[in-house]
């Protein structure tokens, strides 16, 4: 992505549309002098960094608006360039006129993500931090905001950077061996290299694993509601959504197909899928439904197994639990129809330590269930992960790093230095892609074009 840093760029930093104020951002070597050309007030070129100034924006004799200009003198700004932020009144007409005027006076309209691109190119942020800026802007829950903020603070990149540096040392030692190829020397201690490679592979593996949760927080948790016909799945779905979405009926097996709804708990989206009954189906349409249930379960992170606490036998309950338990899926047991049982029967229910006892019909303990859903899918999974990978680009680079590291490990004792060196270089390349030590124009274009203009 080519970016001529000699140019001063301008864009609206606040959303389009009418607002109390709009903030127009200028960044580049001439930001302050260009602002001064359209400015009536104190001489901006003579003011200190991090100061605010009241003044008027004028186009010759025509006054456009009364504004406040915030001044950031290079390198103490987001982009490390001179930056002026003009807070004007938030009318589309005023904003457009001021931007046009600034362009007439030497600025150029900024492209999507160009301010952050400059922050990256000028060393203010590394690539994963720049991406965290986009994530932070898009975050819609406490959890996603926290992850983005941690990434922005560099937690993720620091960890990788340290590992990368250690590997670079080995790479250079092995390069050195290549220079002395005829003398059959070994500068890079193979045992140490093995230890380091194992350590890096372990960290990378844990980061790769964290993607599932990171992705869940960012994009939602696939959650399936399963249980025998008439257990109350549809009623429970309605109670959770507090609406009448799924059709409730007395005839077993009416939920022929799957219904998908989104439930938001503490800012996390749970994609709830209500499925046809899991019982052996006799009619073919339902059979397809049953098959689909099993497929949906295998694609989900969370399974809410609902059963009729009054009707189900212990044997059926246990066999359902056993057949639904899959690795990688968290299961919640929900004993439904508690309203049909008296206190004594409730106390005698099986699995009382694990099961959440509710009445979907009477909407009893639904909030408790929501809390459990959140805890099981997010809170309990968070412990043990200091850093979460949420970005698919990072995941792919980590996976490629892992593959290269596995090649390094399997070749350490057998292959010649030149092959080993190649695999290490590959691992370094992919690790570098994450933080931006290694970049290509395509990669930058791809990342920054997804930003909004003005960021
Ligand atoms: P599904 O086949 O699992 O989706 O079950 P439905 O949600 O269609 O419910 C089957 C029947 O059980 C309907 O008549 C519901 O009204 C009834 N039902 C569901 N939940 C409860 C509950 O908590 N208490 C009582 N008494 N009946 C319920």
TrEMBL record:
It comes from the Bacteria. Binds 1 potassium ion per subunit. It is an enzyme of class 3 (hydrolase). It is found in: Cytoplasm. GTP binds at residues 230-235, 249-255, 274-277, 336-339. K(+) binds at residues 230, 249, 251, 254. Keywords: Cytoplasm, GTP-binding, Hydrolase, Magnesium, Metal-binding, Nucleotide-binding, Potassium, tRNA processing. Residues 220-378 form the TrmE-type G domain. Its cofactor is K(+). Mg(2+) binds at residues 234, 255. Its EC number is 3.6.-.-. PROSITE patterns: G_TRME. The keyword Metal-binding applies. Belongs to the TRAFAC class TrmE-Era-EngA-EngB-Septin-like GTPase superfamily. TrmE GTPase family. Exhibits a very high intrinsic GTPase hydrolysis rate. Involved in the addition of a carboxymethylaminomethyl (cmnm) group at the wobble position (U34) of certain tRNAs, forming tRNA-cmnm(5)s(2)U34. Homodimer. Heterotetramer of two MnmE and two MnmG subunits. This is tRNA modification GTPase MnmE. The gene is mnmE.
